[in-house]
Amino acid sequence: MKSFGLTDKGRVRQDNQDSFIIESCTARDSLIVALCDGMGGAKAGGLASRLSNRAFVSYIYAKLTSRTKRPIDYKTMLQAACDEANSVSYEYSQFDEAYKGMGTTIVGGVINGSGNGYIINVGDSRAYHISHSSNSIYQITKDHSLVEELVEFGAITKEQARSHPQRNVITRALGSEESVESDYFEFSLQSGDILLLCSDGLSNMVTDLEMLDYANEYQDPELVCRSLMSKALKRGARDNVTVLAVMK
Predict the structure, then answer these.
(1) Parallel, antiparallel, or unpaired for β 183-188 and 116-122?
(2) What is the rounded CA–CA span in Å between residue 127 and residue 121?
(3) What is the pLDDT of residues 188-200, one digit of tens each?
(4) What are phi and psi of 186, to 5 degrees?
């Protein structure tokens, strides 16, 4: 598998509260990936993002490299990793008034050498499966956001959600409460397929079909990420932008 990721503060924000990690685990022939988008002011949001990201990935890595060679229950492991990341961020927020209310989204998980993938998310950072054979893009995760609820209720369309004034209001986040509910998904990458993770700084500026077009044009994780980043920045990038791609 090939992988690449990059992040940018965008054209408007002064600080970058996004973070991502790509960690190779040779013991299990796997990649651990995670992307966080912090909230709660520059100081607090960036801290929540970095703390949660590292806690999530470290927990998974420790489980995958454990000397106890038993089958991995990916759902249990990822949910526990998410709980650990939430606890670390939440407890840190209790130390200082400046960090009160800080939080972060998270999308991340494990992809093994055979292409089987396991993903968890909280908030509105997304995971997409781009299929080479069927020339299609599918959003694996479901946003935990106000506009997503409005779309489900039929109050607005998907297209209207992209420009809705409350599109950045999320209904779940890591670190803002003592506990959090996460959603778990499984998928399978075939040869040439891409797993794409992104913060809403990208998905608010670039459409799903444009993501598919770039994946078809370049067929390389680095070039896909750089092209999508360039498109978001050219369109004004009102938020931090992060994109990560894994190709089988």
Answers:
(1) antiparallel
(2) 9
(3) 999 999 999 999 9
(4) -125, 150
